[in-house]
């Protein structure tokens, strides 16, 4: 089970969520007691936090998990991040599997505080969705170690937040190895399709958002799959009926024509082997889906590695997107 499936409430990251300190984390050096390890002040969403300058035993959760593994941070334990198992190379997967897990994927409310204690952390980095902060007993965590809370309100914020997690963990120099490669590749793809597809209206359908029978999850800009198009120049117009939902919403299949009939191109995530997840197949089987203009025209872009949330894994998604865009009939 991937991180966005099962915990239905976590699918809409922005529900009743507001970033308490913006997305720009920063830190200042601070001279600590000579008998203690050096510390510095880090500006997190939960306020300025005095953290170790060189943390040695970090517990990381949510969107902080994978970028800190990739950057070689000194991790003592992590929350599950199964949504990107298909995206991890062998070395990264081995490192992830070796680390003790302190909470199931997408369920920080089930955080095992005893397991966190057993990890003997000197720093705790919480990258869970901003609205999930209320599910945490921060006081209990703060009694164990300094807590840096940096949670997204939408999935597309992994770009900025990844760099902040690395800064807090003391591995800023190691993180972002793939950033330049990602930005170069994204720019190439944007240039390739700007003339033929740049003016089209795109829409997204989530493949792993825990939908129930008779409904689908419409993704707007900066959502799980659509955020991967953010740097390619394509437009995903529209917004949820409830602005608090931010990047997507659950809708009944009967609402599909009204919500997707005007889309020129529809994008959606598939498994790494190209197969369609069961909950999305249930949508595809509906005559309402089959009669959508974009579907009838074949203007569909299946995206492998659609849960990517680091520059390294997003490169895999970009290659899939490029393949899908190149195959669109509307280009001819």
Descriptive keywords:
alpha/beta; 28% helix; 332 residues; 11 helices; four-stranded parallel sheet; 12 strands; five-stranded mixed sheet
Walk me through the structure.
This protein is α/β, with parallel strands linked by helices and 332 residues long. 28% of the residues lie in helices and 18% in strands. It has a five-stranded mixed sheet with strand order 10-9-8-11-12. It has a four-stranded parallel sheet with strand order 5-4-6-7. Helix 1 (65-70) links the parallel strand 4 (58-62) and strand 5 (75-78). The chain is globular, with a radius of gyration of 20 Å.
| Element pattern in H and E | EEEEHEHHEHEHHEEEHEHHHEH
Could you tell me the radius of gyration in angstroms? 20 Å
Low-confidence stretches: 1-27, 29-33
Q: How is the main sheet built?
A: 5 strands, mixed
Total DSSP helices: 11
Number of strands: 12
Strand order of the largest sheet: 10-9-8-11-12
Overall form: globular
Q: What number is the mean pLDDT?
A: 90
Q: Proportion of β residues?
A: 15-25%
Which secondary-structure class do the elements indicate?
Answer: alpha/beta
Q: What is the helical fraction, as a range of percent? A: 25-40%
Distance between the termini: 38 Å
